[in-house]
Design a protein that fits this description.
This protein is of the alpha+beta class. The protein has helices spanning 2-16, 24-28, 73-81, 88-91, 120-127, 154-158, 180-184, 249-263, 283-290, and strands at 57-65, 99-105, 110-116, 133-140, 145-149, 168-172, 192-195, 201-204, 206-207, 223-232, 235-241. The protein is 25% helix and 23% strand.
């Protein structure tokens, strides 16, 4: 509770120190200007887990910009369910039984659990639609927390588009969990996420070092950073900038190629989100203005 009290207060103080309180991006994603005991519903993505610290406790904190909740679905699936990504699923006895996924329906506010590999195909039925179904958490078969992500969608909280969700994700590494390299491996492919300009477009999620997490082209492309920490005696030691590595240079190059291809579609799908996903953007206001001009066809 103390952390939840300090962080929102610190953010608000920093915003208020800006000249004239005029920073658009600072206010855009904050839906409340006072702390009421819980940061959920205030706007910022929340990913929290509680566990007993191991002798060695490495974690990776992923943070994304210009994208939405559900962006972690594919990476989390590959980390905890794909043997082509995570060798430990095949060769490590501590991981061979697989993992349990907690999936949230962000529209109906429901959840469901799937065991992998036993229910892998059932799991994919839902998490393949990340705009509605998001992996909230992953557990071992003994119900020990392995990963958690934020599933808050700003548009569903506010009832209209007010900014991207900027989701976060925390993953524990090593021992009974995937190794650090296995956790990072999914980001060697520039998978497509929703968000980008006005939260209304598809684009590649580009893994970048912290000093390059400054999206500008068409407000993007969407970015992800990864900070590595070691937890020792309840304290975070670090961080190490995990994507500040030439091993991800090819992914960044691919991201720009994919971004160019998607941008060439302009206002057409698949670059622009499908109509059902535009419900909370400003486009329905434009459509409402033109509603009276539609005419019935003679059958």
């Amino acid at each position: 509770m103390k952390i939840f009290t300090v962080l929102p207060g610190m953010f608000l103080k920093l915003v208020l120190k800006l000249p004239g309180n005029s920073s658009f991006t600072a206010w855009e994603d904050l839906l409340a200007d006072a702390f009421s005991g819980n940061v959920k519903g205030m706007g910022p993505g929340v990913a929290e887990m509680a566990f007993e610290e191991r002798k060695a406790e490495p974690i990776i904190v992923f943070m994304a910009d210009k994208t939405s909740a559900g962006a972690w679905n594919l990476p989390l699936f590959k980390i905890f369910a794909d043997p082509f990504n995570t060798a430990g699923l095949v060769i490590a006895p501590s991981m061979h039984n697989g993992f349990r996924f907690e999936v949230h329906d962000v529209k109906e506010h429901k959840r469901i659990f799937f065991d992998s590999p036993e229910e892998m195909y059932d799991l994919l039925v839902f998490i393949g639609t990340p705009g509605r179904y998001a992996v909230k958490a992953v557990y071992t078969k003994n119900n020990e927390i392995a990963a958690v992500s934020s599933t808050q969608r700003l548009a569903l909280i506010a009832g209209q588009y007010v900014g991207k969700d900027d989701p976060v994700c925390v993953v524990r590494c090593q021992s009974q969990f995937p190794a650090v390299g296995e956790v990072l491996e999914p980001f060697t492919a520039a998978h497509i996420v929703e968000g980008w300009m006005r939260g209304s477009h598809h684009g590649p999620l580009m893994p970048v070092p912290v000093h390059k997490a400054t999206p500008s082209r068409f407000d993007g492309p969407p970015r992800a950073i990864a900070l590595g920490f070691q937890i020792a005696d309840g304290r975070l030691v670090g961080p190490r900038d995990m994507f500040d590595d030439p091993g991800f240079d090819e992914t960044r190059r691919q991201s720009n190629i994919v971004a160019n291809y998607m941008r060439s579609h302009g206002p057409f799908e698949p670059h622009r989100l499908p109509m059902v996903a535009m419900e909370y953007t400003t486009m329905p206001k434009v459509m409402e203005k033109l509603k009276g001009r539609w005419e019935k066809l003679d059958m």
